[in-house]
Amino acid sequence: NAGVTQTPKFRILKIGQSMTLQCTQDMNHNYMYWYRQDPGMGLKLIYYSVGAGITDKGEVPNGYNVSRSTTEDFPLRLELAAPSQTSVYFCASSLDSSGNTIYFGEGSWLTVV
Amino acid sequence: GDSVTQMEGPVTLSEEAFLTINCTYTATGYPSLFWYVQYPGEGLQLLLKATKADDKGSNKGFEATYRKETTSFHLEKGSVQVSDSAVYFCALSDYNNNDMRFGAGTRLTVKP
Q1: pLDDT at position A1, please?
Q2: Which residues of chain A are at the B interface, by a Cβ-Cβ cutoff of 8 Å?
Q3: How many alpha carbons lie under 13 Å from residue B49 in its C-beta half-sphere?
C-alpha cells in the first residue's frame, strides 16, 4: 500500500550544491506534481507532468528541473542550491486533472545553509 | 484563472466547540472541491470531497457542502477534538487546469 513515496525525508545542503529528490508512485497515475511549502504558507506548484515524457512549469520553476522517463518516477533536481530553496517539498500524483483526488507523499524537508 | 480563498488563521478552539472554516472559489468551469488536512510533520491527506453542486462531502465528523450559488465549500464540525489540531486546505480541480489549486491553509489548534 505504498502510494506516493519520496526520498530523502530530510537533507541539509550547502549553498551551490546540487541534489535530486526522488519520487515514485505505484498507482499508475498519469499526472505527477512537485509542490513546495514554505513555513506557514500554502502550496506552490514547481513542475508537473501529465504523462511519461511530458513535463511543464508550474508557478515557481526557477532553480529546479524535472524529468519523467517512466509513469512511476518523477525526480526533482535542484541545481546550485540557494537559501531561498529551504522548504518542504511534496511530490503528488493523480489519475488525471478532471476532479480526481491528488495523493501526496510524506514530504522532504530541505535546508540550504 | 481558477483560485481558492479560505479564511485566515490561526483558529483556536476549546474541545467540543463548533468549527467553521470558510472557503470560497473562483472557477470558469464546474470544478470538484476538496478539503485536505495536514497533521504536524506529515503530508496532506484528503479529508473529503464533492464533485458537483449541492453534494455534501463528509468524513470523521467533518462536513462541507458544495454551494454553487455562493461559490463556497465551508468546512464544519460540530464538536472538535484535540486530535483535530492540524492545518486545513481547501482546493479545487477541474479539466481546465493541469493541477489542483490550493488555498493558503488554515491552522486549527484545539485546546483541552
Answers
A1: 66
A2: 31, 33, 40-43, 45, 48, 50, 56, 58, 90, 92, 94, 97-107
A3: 17
